[in-house]
Design a protein that fits this description.
Elements: E1 3-5, H1 6-13, H2 17-26, E2 32-33, E3 39-42, H3 43-53, E4 69-80, E5 84-91, E6 94-101, H4 102-108, E7 115-120
Antiparallel strand pairs: 1-3, 2-3, 4-5, 4-7, 5-6
Pfam families: HTH_17 (PF12728), TOBE (PF03459)
InterPro entries: HTH_17, Mo/tungstate-bd_C_term_dom, Mop_domain, SinI_DNA-bd, Transp-assoc_OB_typ1
Organism: Kocuria oceani
Length: 132
């Protein structure tokens, strides 16, 4: 079992430590004691709860796609020169930055405050784990 401390579980869920403790009391999550005596929750159980409680905004593109990693958010910044642009989106708690042609920025009407979807093809995603 991967043990996740209450404070870390709260950060993953975007709630307070007290909320996680309340969910434990209500039976929404179960807890155990770590070898060091800290209250912990099972990582797999936490992952299931996180997925169940996630709220995804509707994708305005409404297109069929093979890409499964779609992040709907707001454009927060566009930095352009004559050829290339850097576009930054805030998708929930995630900051996504894309480099694209300035022509594409104009064609898509990308500007701060605009709703947009960042699409990430899974073959280009790096996955890391803490200090293994």
């Amino acid at each position: 079992m991967t043990e996740i401390r209450i404070a870390d579980a709260a950060r993953f869920l975007g709630v307070s430590d007290d909320t996680v403790r309340r969910w434990i009391e209500q039976g929404t999550l179960s807890s155990a004691r770590s070898a060091t005596g800290h209250s912990v929750v099972d990582g797999l159980e936490l992952a299931r709860l996180l997925k169940e409680r996630s709220v995804r905004p509707e994708d305005p593109a409404r297109v069929a796609s093979s890409a499964r990693n779609r992040f709907v958010g707001l454009v927060t910044e566009v930095v352009s020169d004559t050829v290339m642009s850097q576009v930054e989106l805030q998708c929930g708690p995630h900051r996504v930055v894309s480099l694209m042609s300035t022509e594409a920025v104009r064609d898509l009407g990308l500007e701060p405050g605009r709703v947009a979807t960042a699409v990430v093809k899974s073959t280009d995603v790096v996955v890391e784990t803490p200090g293994a």
